[in-house]
Fold this sequence. Notes:
Blueprint: H1 2-9, H2 18-23, H3 30-38, H4 42-50, H5 56-62, H6 75-78, H7 84-97, E1 112-116, H8 120-131, E2 135-139, H9 148-151, H10 160-171, E3 176-178, H11 189-195, E4 198-201, E5 207-208, E6 221-223, H12 224-230, E7 240-244, H13 248-259, E8 264-268, H14 280-288, E9 292-294, E10 297-305, E11 307-319, E12 328-331, E13 337-340, E14 343-346, E15 350-351, E16 382-384, H15 395-410
Helix pairs in contact: 1-3, 3-4, 3-7, 4-7, 5-7, 8-15, 12-13
Iron/sulfur cluster (SF4) is lined by residues 11-14, 17-19, 30-31, 34, 73-75, 82, 84.
Amino acid sequence: MEEIIEKANYCLNCKIKPCSQNGCPLGNNIPEFIKLVKEEKYKEAYNALSETTVLQAVCGRICPHKKQCQGSCVRGIKSEPVSIGDIEAYVGDKAIENNYNLFNNIENSKKRVAIIGGGPSGLTCAAFLAKQGAKVTIYERYNYLGGLLVYGIPEFRLPKDIVKNTIQKILDLGVQVEYNKELGKNLKLEELEKEYDVIFLSFGANKSVKMGVEGEELNGVYGGNELLEYNEHPNYIGKTIAVIGGGNVAMDCARTIKRLGAKEVKVIYRRAEEQMPAEEKEIKEAKEEGIEFLFQNNIVKIIGNKKVEKVELIKTELIKKEGETRLSPVNIEGSNYIIDIDYIVMALGSKPAEFVQNLGLELNKWGNIAINEKGQTSNPRIFAGGDIAGIKGTVAWAAKSGRDIAYEIMK
Ligand code: SF4
């Protein structure tokens, strides 16, 4: 506790709140909740956070704080920023420990809303709808809630108990859940439309994107999202694995695979380290765990007879291209080389599953469900948020879309 108070006391409680306004996607009132922590008023600090978020203990642990709130903290200009994430996680944990209610006032409404998908966006939408009195049912394809918070983020980054207890607070608001229900299988939009006033789609877009290189169809090439989601891994013991990509999914895959006994794990990224989208902390920890990074390397082809045996790489240089804000990697001619590899994991990004094309809703040019500024799809009674609507890929951005749409739905 003393350590947390010390961290809170380092905050200047700035009036202009750059951490909240420029940094936090959810717009959490950071100086206010930190001020309450300084006074050891944890319940009040939790209430202050609950105005804008229901995932305190989760976001406190897994948000890319350096790129969000802490990246905008004025303390960070000359020195280290305030440890906002640690303080938020502490308050979220206190709420779990002491059974604080998520909301003190619940309004009244007769509206009925179905939410499809119980990940960060769906759960946050459910909570803020319930706060406004709506009768909410979440339809979830697994027999547990949480989505990528459970299957996409390893236990060492986000303990499952924390997720479970955070979700319980949302269910305590009276939110109902139908488990093992999946659109395109045993759930139909038309039937839900008859039963509910509004439907909110928040089932994510978790299919790994492919690179389109030769040899990608060989056995031993896996999608990073699928590996984490289904948790079905080959035997890595004594093997060398290449993970392609530079985001948090790449880091989570690399670190999980190393823990499962791989001899060597190499992360291959075509840009430089400072351009990696993964959290600095994740990269540092991955290095400490013995993961090797091949920066400024691109894949030319995957080589093998039925199964992956080798990979041909080429080195890249970074150049400024007209009209582009960041440096672009360009292959250096003649710098090709080949390394032995047993398995390859593609962690380059995600896209929606194919069944989305058959929902009768308009899609945007990236294949996500098209929405207007209110989150409404081409069917005005159906809203969509989070990854499936192409919202920026962090948990906090998905949660923000769920929250904002909950208010739009009730309008
Ligand atoms: Fe505190 Fe930093 Fe936010 Fe200022 S910018 S209120 S010091 S967390």
